[in-house]
């Protein structure tokens, strides 16, 4: 062949490839009929790339602009919320058409003629609907004739229904039952009452805000509110607009929105509005409450709890909380339990559902307005509402991860989705077809009323003129890029907006998803504000399977059905929905990733009536239409049948103890503290104070409260009791505790914080000698540093226990180093150890302490956790402690460490270290290899220590303040040179304080995960605890073999609500059990399986087999909340072992033990400690689980001597003496 012939062949091949490329639209699909379904081949192309391509209006012929005049906005600012778009094949030609809503002009219907080209057929279709201020639109077959009808909401007029004749011609339905608008927005349809047809929910905003009805003078607080007794009331006529909201002891005047509307389908394609709404909407306790005057933006139906009934989530703007309504199966809804969701977004805009980690449970995402860019975020007004029903609301997105029992952990910070700018339409979609759904959001707003500088200027002008007319028009325009976030398959997301096709700034609102080019992947349409609407074409060529449904009339699209695909990389599931995207409705089609090598995928459709269709032999690059007529009814699995009981049973009624926490305003002492310092307790300890052989329970108190003492009566019951001296009102917060038995008494040391007492002269702790019901006391001298943890061990080897008192911080001087101290035990009295205490002077902000013989040399070493610092390891050398932290690399892990404990997690006989931290689900996350920094100094030279909480900002390439300008008012002279929020947002820490940040004292954090440091011959290796452990802050880490399998497990106490308002509290934990595998790895156990479900701020915790059944029971404290007692119900029984030491150390503190099996192998070593974890102490008696039959026990006594004690054949409880 000639060279020219070769050239022709090559160029011809490439031309063919171009023509077959992924961007080309398919011809009409060629359908193949099978029993119960039909399918068609798809042509995804060869040269695709992940993402979307904007289709020019000149190519698509879509010339629609949702234009809104300034005059309309000035009269009614709710016009700014824009309009939506919906998609459906209205004429049955096999191509999906587009309908766009307009606020001031006519709506438009565009017929899809293929090739991503469209023709305006609005007039022929009779769908102009001009003059109705259209907002929401959705195609849905409401009369069961298989043709998509059209529902339209209006901002100010009536909501309507158009009936489709099947040829794309529509008739306005008279007497549809839909009523006048109340500022209507999004519609969602589902069969809520299981009668087969689609019912309708409409979210309502408000016809017009009160700010567009009255002047600023008329709306002043003085003119609208008066005091009536001890309460505030709104005076007429303003009481029809405002209400007084009480939360966290404060009252607010807030404007109400409008009630949403629920319509029941009469069965003939018309609707009846629910007027007896209290019968349909119940509170969490089952009492009628009805609907609320919320600012409704988006509503969506989804079967959240997998009971086959569509539940309802409503995203509400402003202060009105979101609503999660659980369908009771009969068309009535019950508010989800307050523990189901622990915090919410403040101004929620959109919502969508997905199984983001493919674990089979439904998760969901709620969008809000927080900016991801520092320079914009610091110019935004941040609104925060203290807990209503226990749920605070924050300016941030929320991502709710289903724990498996249909309660949710909010993990937006962990997932990197907290801030996506001013977001509207929110949709999960597998953009890259990897089996995991990504996120796509529309953004922007015509007038950025969150801009603080404009707000300040308008307030100045209003105070002079008392006029507010047209104020919204004075704010700057906020054009933004839309967002696409890739699901990384590990519960985190990465912003791919620009690389996936969002390259321009605009104001985008409604969005509809559909396969517009018949290639089996999702394209989408956006209705923008005062800008032409836009179509985006999906560019991927990845293998896919697309599915639509043909349901039985009247639910002909199978709305509410669940489609499951098996055979690809992961099992995927999608529920078919109607509406529920902000003011929009998408094509009811599911898009799945496929395995091109597998010709036997399986599709399973579970229809709303619980019938099931199953299709085998499903292949990639096909679209399937599944017909319900061939579905088979299958017996429903009895979900009420009892499985294995949870590991722990709640027995908290035995103690009924609530931790006392005085209200104390730490920020009056230091206004810019990163967290409250007064809410760090309580601690928990198990000790046998009455020497009857049974562990009793101690729970420390806050200032002004009384320690909880619970005597074990020997019958598996605890009884509240008091001990003279010890049970007096606490002068300060009781912090850590440590206790041990001597020959005649229990010695109990309680740390005492001086912070709230206001004096360094008060005792830093008390040592009680307890003799049954009485005690004498020794005061431990006070210092400037306030007391944190307490731990005891015989570090000088003289036979009695010595004491460590950790310095948590210095009041008024945070975060300067605090001082800790060691006390030697001299004939029962504690005397400060001057040599060692000098080494501990200014050792840092000590939060946890535990003595452990890490080097196995027979004497106790000391491990400290420190805030804004590293873990400290201090080696005992002949009674003197030497800091060896750097030698083992602990200095490389600087964190907000809370607690520290040890355990032999890899079974090598040496103690490993576990340390709790703030976790990975907070705003405190180091980025780009730069640590977080806490700068401190007297910056304004007024004698008060100032703090600047900061992080590294890549755009400025400098450290910048985390807090807003108005939060920095404690340094007025320093900030005098800052003239605007805009200037402040562009300023580095160095700019603000006027000096090189390198010369400013600071503390830093480069590690936020909870970590385990596994020992080995070469030192320690650091590993983060499992992913689910990182969802919240943790405090106590407690080691025990909870399931008695011979491997050490962990319990973590979780949550921290002590941050300033506006800093998101950490509430995604409820106490976490981590089961160890004996090699240093752990598996998180869900709460409904472990039985541990504590929703407050857990602090100290302690383990004891207090009922002596060979199982480790657990007591957990909560700051300002009730203590919880769990009884272990493990199937296996462990060995109960108690060591008895000499007179000064009867509990053999500092000893360790490990089982020896018949084959010579050994179990993990367990140490006996006084003080560990977080301000707590476990029982000295141990429960050792067995992996196999144990023959003996290896005891390493506190003095380093080792011996082997034989175990009997049938024995379960042992006592061994020194």
Automatic annotation (TrEMBL):
<dbReference type="InterPro" id="IPR027039">
    <property type="entry name" value="Crtac1"/>
</dbReference>
<dbReference type="Pfam" id="PF07593">
    <property type="entry name" value="UnbV_ASPIC"/>
</dbReference>
<dbReference type="InterPro" id="IPR028994">
    <property type="entry name" value="Integrin_alpha_N"/>
</dbReference>
<dbReference type="InterPro" id="IPR013517">
    <property type="entry name" value="FG-GAP"/>
</dbReference>
<dbReference type="InterPro" id="IPR011519">
    <property type="entry name" value="UnbV_ASPIC"/>
</dbReference>
<protein>
    <submittedName>
        <fullName>ASPIC and UnbV</fullName>
    </submittedName>
</protein>
<keyword id="KW-0732">Signal</keyword>
<feature type="domain" description="ASPIC/UnbV">
    <location>
        <begin position="1148"/>
        <end position="1205"/>
    </location>
</feature>
<feature type="domain" description="ASPIC/UnbV">
    <location>
        <begin position="558"/>
        <end position="624"/>
    </location>
</feature>
<dbReference type="Pfam" id="PF13517">
    <property type="entry name" value="FG-GAP_3"/>
</dbReference>
